[in-house]
Amino acid sequence: MLDQKTIEIIKSTVPVLEQHGEKITTRFYQLMFGNHPELLNIFNHANQKQGRQQKALAGTVYAAAMYIDNLEAIIPVVKQIAHKHRSLGIKPEHYPIVGKHLLLAIKDVLGDAATDEIIDAWAQAYEVIAGAFIGAEAEMYDVAANQKGGWGGFRNFIVDRKVIESDVITSFYLKPEDQKEIAGFEPGQYISILLEIDGEKFTHIRQYSLSDAPGKDFYRISVKREAGTPNPDGIVSNYLHDEVKEGDILKVSAPAGDFVLDTEKTNPVVLLSGGVGLTPMMSMLKTVVELQPERKVTFVHAAANGNVHALREEVEELAQLDNVNSCIFYDSPTEDDRQNNRFDVEGYVTREWLEENVAIEDAEFYFCGPVPFMKAINGSLKGLGVTYERIHFEFFGPMGSLENNEKDTAIAERSEDLVTV
Hints:
Blueprint: H1 4-12, H2 14-35, H3 45-50, H4 52-66, H5 75-88, H6 94-110, H7 116-146, E1 154-164, E2 169-176, E3 190-195, E4 204-209, E5 219-224, H8 234-242, E6 249-253, E7 269-274, H9 278-291, E8 297-303, H10 312-318, E9 324-330, H11 335-339, E10 345-346, H12 351-357, E11 364-368, H13 371-383, E12 391-394, H14 407-414
Parallel strand pairs: 7-8, 7-11, 8-9, 9-10, 11-12
Antiparallel strand pairs: 1-2, 1-6, 2-5, 3-4, 3-6
Helix pairs in contact: 1-7, 2-4, 2-6, 5-7, 6-7
């Protein structure tokens, strides 16, 4: 436990962290990777190059300072981060390294303003915060390894099938090389893929949502090719699309993640996705159909056009069921899309459409997709009076805020700015 004086010192740094947070975290990564380049085998290089990780970590430090006297308030977010840490292989021995370089970065950026008293207070606070993460992750490692069909670390899976779903998305059906049972998962969860790519100095790890329902003898991921040159995001997706073949081996961690469908509830559920954000939604949709055939589900997907729209036929088949309603939005439909009636609405998912077509008053809302799409959906739902308890979403990559401004409000309401690795 931290004494009152230490808490007061930490809280006094909140304005400074708000102003200089990203400078501190940028310097932190420079220092840490300079001294421990081996950690680049764990961290996402693309997020580093794009500055997304620096921003996300700055939000974490800022929020930790705000809630240092009430860390219980951010336990749900600690668990969310811990899921990702477990899937990546973050271990207790990594935390002292992170703590050391975070303190060095604070001192380096703030200079004389970072007094010995402040540095000592943050050292104490970091120890408490790290302990919370280590404890949560230890429990998750135990569950992952000891559950039915579970395992620790990364396990070899064979690419049993590789299916082109659209011009940009390909599905990979993965079965365990040892032919033993695989762990179940909750709809919405993801797995991590570890790749050693020729010509790359470090390994790459990426998380991909599972795009089929649980209970199968395989895992399915549906991967979007990230185009553009140079594009650090595309290193792994292009390798999977171009180099990985049926019969190849991929290293996979056990399913993780807390963005999951609540199957204990029976009220209507609305699943909204943009682009490749449909992958966790497909798992949720199929799960409702299989486990809750009486539960009303509305599946809303937005894409540019039919050329990039994946898994359409699967949704069309499910939409024949009495409890399933589907609506497809294309903002740039092709002439072929028009002639073959491949979509329902031309344009974007709007607040007005939601108000007229979904059960606003009692539904649960789950959404995932590009950040602009998610901001628009989040804003529309809030504008329609949907309470945050019924709003569920996931970022692909480091978590950020769906608010357009007022960081304090976003953190206080949903702790949306918290994330680490």
